[in-house]
Amino acid sequence: MSDERRDSRGRQRGAARARGERTRTAQAPSQRRRGSDPARTAAFDVLREVDASDAYANLVLPPLLRERGVTGRDAAFATELAYGTLRLRGRYDAILARCVDRPLDRLDPPLLDVLRLGAHQVLGMRVPQHAAVSETVGLARERVGTGPAQMVNAVLRKVARTPLPEWLDLLRAAAPDAVTASAVVGSHPVWIARALREALAGDGRDPAELDALLEADNTAPRVTLVARPGLVSVTELRGQAPDGMRLDSGRWAPTALVLGGQDPLLLPAVADGRAGVQDEGSQVVALALAAAPLEGRDARWLDLCAGPGGKAALLAALAAQRGATLVANEVAPHRARLVAKALRAVPDGVVERVRTGDGREVGEQEPGAYDRVLVDAPCTGLGALRRRPESRWRRTPADLSALTGLQRELLSCAIDAVRVGGVVAYVTCSPHLAETRLVVDDVLRRRRVDGVPDAERIDAPAALRAVVAPGVDLPLGDRADAQLWPHVHGTDAMHLTLVRRVR
């Protein structure tokens, strides 16, 4: 954008005003929205931080709201506006592209973010259309200039003229194939939608569930707490709830409670580390490793990729009950500090150490030293897109090659580190076949001693069913590995394979 189109404060002006021409609206100057409210401004600033600095909304928004004193309903509005816009960005961009007279990539990024925020209010929130348009125009006038504000007004009025169901029908009709249609309407990159469809089929599920899965990714998850066994019980945790805080039983894990409102840090057990915030899928895969049948001693456990420490803390609590110890390894020093913080409530002597180092070296340094090993492998995170909505727009297929190579090395190292008869849990927060089944297949195929495999899969679904709440039927496929799904289980899409060292 040329300097001639900027005013003295650096804001963009309309073409007519840049030429010295005056434009008028039907509103009197006193009626025009000059700026926006703190909630919308906060949501806009989060989107700019996510775009400009590759930040994560869940790390940016809470401190920003605290600093600006945005609380209560305004904070809830800002949260839904920011997160909802990030989740449904792909859908809104497809709609905006039909209402803007130039390619979206030619718009200034701040202006495009304003349009996305406005589209979400018009189509995705219970905001009266006139308020959604006028407040967004005020935000545009304040943050990107008067000229763009006029454009925002015109574009959002076009968006508002068509109800959402009709927009979605138009988008589906324009797509070249069914998967692309699902991706655009469900606001996911097409490559991710294709990968998820293949993963559904690979798990023995109907690929037609794709739309339900994408919709689940676009639904904000409830906060789930873990009561770490031996440190605090579910009953004790419930008893700590202040007035107005609702805690419901988890669907699967006996350690889980679902938070119905308020800050979890208001619970003393969360504040001091006896409990924590942890997805129920993450809880049950850790519980399954601890419950997997073992031959021989059960004294020393390893979390190979422990950061930020949720699974390590749950395993350490379980180890304490059995007289076992845990070593937690994490390659990144700042994440190792998070692990140490997560473990602060574990009794002395249970955690041997929080080791900072490359997990691929542990098997060579300590061969056969552990009875149970968790490999919570670095992955694309496609199973947690409902929690980190911006991730879907950052990941590319090129990420897979580097990650799957690392995943193979870590799994092979874990098998080296476990003793004969011991068990390794290979876990990813991704259902992508290239990160799950194909990694395990390749590692087991290569691991042979005198032509005989030295490790084998064991029944992961059976281990999961053994740890869920009594009387609960956990729906899983009929394979040896196990895949959880947001639209089926209400958890992140956690994958679990259990491997026993046999030679």
From TrEMBL:
Signal peptide: none annotated. The keyword Nucleotide-binding does not apply. Residues 213-502 form the SAM-dependent MTase RsmB/NOP-type domain. It comes from the Bacteria. Residues 1-40 are annotated as: Disordered. The keyword S-adenosyl-L-methionine applies. One of its GO terms (molecular function) is RNA binding. Keywords: Methyltransferase, RNA-binding, S-adenosyl-L-methionine, Transferase. Residues 1-10 have a biased composition (Basic and acidic residues). The active site is at C429 (nucleophile). S-adenosyl-L-methionine binds at C305, A306, G307, P308, G309, G310, K311, E330, D358, D376. Belongs to the class I-like SAM-binding methyltransferase superfamily. RsmB/NOP family. This is 16S rRNA (Cytosine967-C5)-methyltransferase. It comes from Xylanimonas ulmi.
